[in-house]
Structures are given as structure tokens and as C-alpha cells.
Input
Amino acid sequence: MSQFPRRLLTDTAVAWDPHANGAARSTFTRHGTVIDIMPGSALEQAYGNANLSGVIPVGQRGDDACLDKACVSN
Output
């Protein structure tokens, strides 16, 4: 289970340092996705602190009935 669960508030494309061959690397993440991001980390800066919500009640952590299923419908 995630130590720092955060819910993404908007669809986001995160760009990373280019690959060794010079190709750009990026990751697209849908809103509602729960990700593990340590506060103050470079990953938090990449997604944007204002774009992350830490409001996931402790009682719902690990309860997949409350999570967004948009990614599995594709």
C-alpha cells in the first residue's frame, strides 16, 4: 500500500529528461488516479502540488471500491 497516496485532480502529461537517444519521455496520467508521491519530492513538482489531493480517508485506503475505474475500461 502507498505511504503517501495522492489523487490526481486533472489529466496530466508529465515530461521527464530525454532518453539517451534524445527522444522525449513523458507519461500521461488520468484524473482520479491514485499515485504514491512523497511531499516535497521532484515527482510532486512534476505533477504540480496544486494538482494533487491528499484527501483519501484512512478507512478507504486499500478499499478499491472507492477508486476510479476509468483506466480499466479501455
